[in-house]
Write a structure and sequence with these properties.
103 residues; alpha+beta; Nucleoside Triphosphate Pyrophosphohydrolase; three-stranded mixed beta sheet; 28% helix
């Protein structure tokens, strides 16, 4: 969630640091995703690591660098597509889902 006075890119950088210990440079918006069941809209951004030291937190019990295949293998479609969208040059994408499947 963004703080009231925070821009979306500042919020992304803060959240990544808080949840993983990694400092990032936010590059670009890669997708907008709406969960039609819960009414939640998520903005996804491509980021590049610039420093920090990974560590688990209350929101991320593990932090690891993974290949695309490793990262998407066990994810539901609605989550995995965010990774593949972020690596595509054809975005940003606008997608809707039910929490599991794209609609």
């Amino acid at each position: 969630m963004l703080e009231l006075s925070e821009t979306p890119t500042d919020g992304v950088a803060r959240e990544v640091l808080e949840e993983t210990g990694v400092r990032v440079k936010v590059d670009q918006l890669t997708g907008v995703y709406k969960n039609m069941v819960r009414g939640v809209v998520t903005l996804a951004f491509r980021c590049y690591a610039t420093g920090g030291k990974t560590h688990p937190t209350s929101e991320a019990s593990q932090v690891a660098w993974l290949t695309v295949e490793q990262a998407t293998r066990d994810m539901v479609e609605a989550r995995a597509v965010r990774i593949t969208d972020a690596l595509s040059d054809n975005g940003p994408f606008v997608r809707v889902h039910d929490g599991t499947h794209l609609l």
